[in-house]
Amino acid sequence: MRTQKIIVNDLMQKNYVYYLTDPVGRNFDPGFSPELTPEQMLRMGVFGGKYMTDCADEFPRKWFTHAKLCHERHDPNLNFFGINASLPLSVWRKKGWIYREDPRLVSMVLQILHGQKVSG
User: Fold this and answer.
1) CA pair distance 119, 16, nearest whole angstrom
2) Which one, of 54, 104, 55, 46, lies nearest residue 75 by Cα?
3) CB half-sphere exposure, 48, CA atoms < 13 A
4) What kind and span of H or E run contains 118?
5) pLDDT by residue (tens digit) across 45-66?
6) Which terminus of the chain, N or C, has less C-beta within 10 A?
7) pLDDT score recorded for residue 102
8) pLDDT value for 9
9) What contacts 92, CB < 8 A, 6 or more positions away?
10) The model scores a pTM over 0.85
């Protein structure tokens, strides 16, 4: 696979750069074995449908074909279990789960699933 440069410009990141160096879904660490694909998570209304509304262009279009998204707000009714399973961004920051270089921890995991991420 030819290395592909990705430039991210969304609500949380401006001109953030990373590179796809491996094919989608290949060459993970042997200990990394997610139970759901990004497409399945989005179809299940992960994060009440709000989290990934401004960065769909960064990822494969197929992931969003049947995604349950809500551009206006977090909607617990979109969650597969019908509950509010999210914590405010302030909690994520306080716990150190958010990095200045890549403030979307889940995006980072999705980037890895999309093809190995190497910050530029």
Assistant:
1) 9
2) 46
3) 14
4) strand 117-119
5) 988 888 788 888 888 899 899 9
6) C
7) 66
8) 87
9) 98, 105
10) no
Q: Return the C-alpha torsion angle 11, 105, 43, 70, nearest 10.
A: -30
Averaged over 86-101, what is the pLDDT? 78
The DSSP secondary-structure symbol of 83 reads S
Q: Which residues contact 32 (CB under 8 A, 6 or more apart)?
A: 112
Rounded average pLDDT over 12-19 = 84
Rounded to the nearest 5 percent, the helix, strand and coil shares of the chain are: 30, 10, 60
More confident residue, 44 or 118: 44
User: What phi and psi values does residue 20 have, to the nearest 5 degrees?
Assistant: -90, 120
